[in-house]
Amino acid sequence: MAANREFLYRRLHSLLGVIPVGLFLIQHLVVNHFATRGPEAFNSAAHFMENLPFRIVLELFVIFIPLYFHAIYGVYIAFTSKNNVSSYGYFRNWMFYLQRISGIITLIFVTWHVWETRIQAGLGNVEVNYALMENILENPFMLVFYIIGVISTTFHFANGLWSFLVSWGITMSPRSQVISTYVTLGVFVLLSYVGIAAILAFAL
Amino acid sequence: MMSEDKQVTLIVTRQDDPESAPYDETFKIPYRNNMNVISALMEVRRNPVNANGEATTPVYWDMGCLEEVCGACSMIINGKPRQSCTALVDQLEQPIRLAPMSTFPVMRDLGVDRSRMFDSLKKVKAWVPIDGTYDLGPGPKMAENKRQWAYELSKCMTCGVCLEACPNVNSKSDFIGPAAISQVRLFNSHPTGAMNKNERLEALMGEGGLAECGNSQNCVQSCPKGIPLTTSIASMNRETALHSFKSFFGSDHEVE
Q1: Binding residue per annotation — A33?
Q2: What is a GO molecular function of this protein (chain A) (predicted)?
Q3: Domain range spanning residue A22?
Q4: Which residue in A149, A73, A158 sits closest to A110, CA to CA?
Q5: Do A92 and B216 touch (CB under 8 A)?
Q6: d(CA A98, CA A45)
Q7: Contact B167/A at CB under 8 A
Q8: Segment A131-170, tens digit of pLDDT
Q9: pLDDT band at residue B255 under the 50/70/90 scheme
């Protein structure tokens, strides 16, 4: 099995990006969307999530362990490639390059976001509610940072879903890969809309 | 018909030996009709004088078949890796820039050492083992439509263009590259070759194997023979995934 470790890590990296991290991302953006219905709706949804039983176990195994395995191994993958879009400006090569850039941006954004919300709440410094987000997004710099962060995250997820389908041999023919390009583009647009709508609800 | 003063300008990235630093040298050679890059280089070899009128050493390059089936004469021509035998001067922008492929160790000038590709073919056992102590008789028949399909994959000439174009084949990674992965698909689909299917899949699942593909798909865009390399990669992704599921807790299935 030692010789297979790299194959195993790569496939695990691909799998964890979608299950559970991708599913968690969708759930998180959907819960955030309560913000468009006003502070009370958001606060009660956030409260519900906060009071889930076995919260620490769920957070560890559904979010933090898979997320940071995916992130740290992903940084290693990103830095072992030698990007060459200037010589080979094909669409998929650009997507390959943007996947690595968006991965790094997403890691910075998510780490900052976890620090500012979950860790600060854990330390007892803040309470996670509508007012906290309203406060953060009052700062125009943070508003731009959050918008870029969310778009980068949804892009990384949607494009990663495309490569997930190839890496597991689900989409094989060129035609199936073109169709999945359009489907994942749709996923990107829809999730970006859900995420940005919530950010603007806090900010405006 | 032939104008006396029409010239072709070549800018060649040269290197005297594997260890020395590369440098550019410009050559101006008389134009002839229907020249390809190789006949232009032969002109330099016939009269090794650079554009400044200084005598220099003739430019070294590799070549073999001169009809794009051997893969030996690959080099970077105006930024893209391709065979110099089928690179026609009339279709190229001037000055024509020639450089050795960067993925492989440079031996001299435009000649590179593609040994790693042949080592990869050995690693994945890209052959049908039939040698034994007695005559095995005729092998199982292959359907004609399957043979035609397999013929497309067999066009690979190990030229190195797909490895050169791949962002994941570089000095920081030991990725085997698209060519050998596609050869596994070819030999695993052969009725006799399929008898050693698992050995090839396991080689692809080892260090530097197919999992290192990042789906930039530059290979399929660059392959001079139009081999469906990314379809082969996805197909081997499927085969290795199934193989890993079946043998997850160990397996007593040698083949299938």
Answers
A1: no
A2: metal ion binding
A3: 2-203
A4: A149
A5: yes
A6: 33
A7: yes
A8: 999 999 999 999 999 999 999 999 999 999 999 999 999 9
A9: low
Tell whether residue A70 is among the known ligand binding residues: yes
Domains of chain B (ranges plus CATH)? 7-112 (3.10.20.30), 115-246 (1.10.1060.10)
Q: Does B152 touch chain A (CB under 8 A)?
A: no
User: B135 pLDDT band (50/70/90 cuts)?
Assistant: confident
Residue B60 has pLDDT above 80, yes or no: yes
Query: B165 and A84: CB-CB below 8 Å?
Result: yes
Spell out a b/e string for B88-102, using b for 16 or more CB atoms within 10 Å of the CB, else e: ebeebeeebbbbbbe
Q: How confident is the model at residue A2 (pLDDT cuts 50, 70, 90)?
A: very low
CA distance from start to end of chain A? 54
Read off the amino acid at residue A97.
Y
The answer to whether B211 contacts chain A (CB < 8 Å) is yes
Whether residue A3 and residue B218 make contact (CB cut-off 8 A), yes or no, is: no
What gap in Å lies between CA B120 and CA A19, rounded to an integer? 33
Q: Residue A1's pLDDT is what?
A: 44
Residue B164 tokens read as: 């050169």
Rounded Cα gap, residues A188 and A195, in angstroms: 11
The Cα B4–Cα A5 span in angstroms is 64
Burial class (CB in 10 A: 0-12, 13-18, 19+), B245: exposed
CATH number of the domain to which A120 belongs: 1.20.1300.10
> Mean per-residue pLDDT for B71-92?
97
Q: What residues of chain A lie within 8 A of the CB of B216, using their CB? A: 88, 90, 92-93, 95-97
Please report, rounded to a whole number, the percentage of residues in chain A having pLDDT higher than 90. Answer: 97
Q: What confidence category does residue A5 fall into, taking pLDDT thresholds of 50, 70 and 90? A: confident
Could you tell me the pLDDT band of residue A50, with boundaries at 50, 70 and 90? very high
Question: DSSP for A34-93?
Answer: GGGG-HHHHHHHHHHHHT-TTHHHHIIIIIIHHHHHHHHHHHHHHHT----TTT---HHH
Residue A105, pLDDT > 60, answer: yes
Our count of domains for chain A comes to 1
- Quick one: which of A185, A93, A131, A107 has its CA closest to B216? A93
Asked if this assembly's ipTM is beyond 0.95, the reply is no
Q: How many CB atoms lie within 10 A of CB B43?
A: 18
